[in-house]
Amino acid sequence: MARAAGIDLGTTNSVIAAWEGGEASVIPNAEGSRTTPSVVAFLETGERLVGQLARRQAILNPKGTIYSVKRFIGRRFEEVEEEAKQVTYDVVPDEHGNARIKVRDKLYAPEEISALILRKLADDAGRNLGERVTEAVITVPAYFNDAQRTATRDAGKIAGLEVLRIINEPTAAALAYGLDKRQHETVLVFDLGGGTFDVSVLDVGDGVVEVRATAGDTHLGGDDFDRRIVDHLAEQFQKENGIDLRNDPQALQRLYEAAERAKIELSSVTQTQVNLPFITADASGPKHLTMTLMRSTFEQLTADLVERTMGPVRQAMSDAKVGPDDIDEVILVGGSTRIPAVQALVRRLTGGKDPNMTVNPDEVVAVGAAIQAGVLKGDVSDVLLLDVTPLSLGVETQGGLMTRIVERNTTIPVRRSETFSTAADNQPAVDVVVLQGERERAADNRVLGRFQLTNIRPAPRGEPQIEVITDIDANGILNVTARDKDTGAEQGITISESTNLDQSDVERMVREAEQNRSSDQQLREEVDARNQLDSLAYQVQRRLDELGDAAPSHERSRAEMLVADARQAVADQAPTDRVRELTDELQQVLAGLNAVSAGGGGSADASVGAGAGAGGATGGDDDVIDAEFDRS
Ligand code: AMP
Predict the structure, then answer these.
(1) What is the pLDDT of residue 462?
(2) Among 95, 132, 446, 535, which residue's beta carbon has the most beta carbons within 10 A?
(3) Quick one: which H or E segment has residue 48?
(4) CA–CA distance, 361 with 333 (Å, rounded to integer)
(5) Distance 227 CA to ligand 1 centre (A)
(6) pLDDT tens readout for residues 386-442
(7) Is 169 a catalytic residue?
């Protein structure tokens, strides 16, 4: 028989769990451990190691041991250049600019490395369960963009798994606690793992989990705590023996392992012994390292690391517009949340609440994923998952603005459509530029992709109805389609090329939007005013053409002069005062011309409500706005 599992594919460690006898349980690996280091090693001999064995030889094989590959999955090289400098193996661009791992002249996609980890997890679990694991729900950080999600899904496929769904890690954690079954609650998920820190604020209840906000630090985790102990031990040793153990890879590997063990022990005892016999030797003979480490010393060595979690927690709460009193539950995720000082800080930040940690913090995400797998296979009922978009999505419209179609923090899956039109008469095609970000000006946002819709029916500007449909599925993968409602011509893209936003990008983009809010708002008003004037000039011209000789000559010449002035003002990007003045005058002229026509056979004026850009863009599915595509 085949089984479905939940997999937490972590930066440092991974965990697999499956639905068994009415509950989700973690399945140990072949070595008997419930967590598996997310490490793959390529040895000189051609042998490949995955998990604990790979980790154990990491320092001795720095170029051939691949760890933290999650930092590179679904990303372009240029976006991870800094990150690449921080790992011991080589990360290079392939011919398309995607990040690749290079080991002895062979290039590996991060997906392939992740697939090796997934394969081991699934194989080991299968042996343990006596049934093959063929399907999986895999978790990713809430801030992963669609390229990173797609790549994670691909890793599952490469590993031979059918990926039932990609879900967010904090969402999985909330599911593991069954919080989705409560009434409406606000939950803070504090996730401090081996190499990364994530904090999320969720709304849960009535079978729904919604991520309200996320923040974090992509370079903060247990490894940093280990390094502080390593440095401390090495410095003490150097003082006594004059030898820096950090220069000897063998000794350093042993120091790291001992430091991590000591750190873990100090979570439950207040003092521990580090013993490393024969750690090195000099002319006088072999040397041994024996030291006592107090919890208080450890706390002093790492106080600043613990403090660093405060900023993101406050940020997430402020983004979600909640204070400590609004938080009903706190969930701890990640092995490093067992550190007493970390727990104390979490309590302090959340108004003294006792955090939930009855589900093992290392395992809680995999357990939640297994529950979701159970839901999807029909073994568990009553759970529905909702996540949110980290940034707004939209398209570029006339005047170089971004018109939003899906607002930031909208619950997914979501499908929204907006109707746009052309910016010129007989315009045969529109360029659809798909944008992500919070700024008003298109150029200040991130271009996710672009495509052209051609074969638009020849028509006056503003008449063609072009529907743009934005569809984000439950895995966060984005499809954008544009359709000419008249001709049925349709074009679209699935955004699966690297869009590459990590949490710090999201934070930066939101912060920049905040900082520039008033100048952005002014820019939008200016562009809207110009678009409105442009549209009005067009209408007046059309009216004049319609009326022909029926237009009184002095009104005609005034109108023509104003139309020319208006077009000039638009082209010159004249000051808004001037634009408004011309708009007023043109409106009067248009009213006058419409009055003329009243005697001559009804108003055939299908006027375009130009420049509605910002106002109506956020409404429901059927909203129609008349912001126009830029013609390029
Ligand atoms: P994760 O990636 O969530 O599995 O977290 C792994 C990190 O948690 C590693 O840095 C571990 O050393 C750390 N860790 C695991 N157990 C403990 C513990 N009892 N006390 C402190 N840190 C721990």
Answers:
(1) 86
(2) 535
(3) strand 48-50
(4) 4
(5) 13
(6) 566 778 899 998 888 999 999 886 777 788 888 898 888 888 888 899 998 889 999
(7) yes
Classify residue 576 as left (phi > 0), alpha (psi -120 to 50) or beta.
alpha
Mutate-to-test residue for ligand 1 from 336, 337, 362, highest number of ligand atoms within 8 A of CB: 336
More confident residue, 3 or 227: 227
Identity of the amino acid at 467: E
Which amino acid would we find at residue 355?
P
Is 440 one of the annotated active-site residues of the chain?
no
**DSSP, residue by residue, 160-190:** T-EEEEEEEHHHHHHHHTTGGGSSSEEEEEE
The backbone region for 209, taken as left when phi is positive above 0, alpha when psi lies in -120 to 50, beta otherwise, is beta
Q: Is the pLDDT of residue 130 over 60?
A: yes
Q: Kindly give, in sequence order, each residue whose CB lies less than 8 Å from that of residue 39, ignoring residues fewer than 6 positions away.
A: 50, 51, 54, 55, 58, 65, 66, 67, 117
303 with 340: CB under 8 angstroms?
Answer: no
Which one of 16, 67, 197, 263 would you pick to mutate in the ligand 1 pocket, going by the greatest count of ligand atoms within 8 A of its CB?
263
pTM for the full predicted model: 0.66
Answer yes or no: are the C-beta atoms of 436 and 501 closer than 8 Å.
yes
Domains and CATH numbers, the chain: 2-220+309-387 (3.30.420.40), 222-304 (3.90.640.10), 389-515 (2.60.34.10), 518-625 (no CATH)
Whether 594 and 525 have beta carbons less than 8 Å apart is answered as no
pLDDT at 268 over 50: yes
Band of pLDDT at residue 381, cut at 50, 70 and 90: low
| Strands across the sheet containing 430-436 | 401-406, 393-397, 430-436, 446-453
Told to judge if 235 belongs to the known catalytic residues of this protein, a careful annotator would answer no
Q: Which of 29, 1, 10 is nearest to 369 (CA)?
A: 10
Q: Using a 6 Å cutoff on CB, does residue 262 contact ligand 1?
A: no
Q: Give me the chain's average pLDDT, please.
A: 87
pLDDT in tens, 498-548: 334 555 676 777 788 878 888 888 888 888 899 889 889 998 999 999 888
Say if CB 45 and CB 410 are below 8 A apart. Answer: no
* Cα of 512 from ligand 1 centre, angstroms: 34
β-strand 285-294 against 393-397: which pairing, if any?
unpaired
d(Cα 237, Cα 353) in Å, to the nearest integer? 41
Are 579 and 571 spatial neighbours (Cβ–Cβ below 8 Å)?
Answer: no
Number of H helices, E strands in the chain: 15, 30
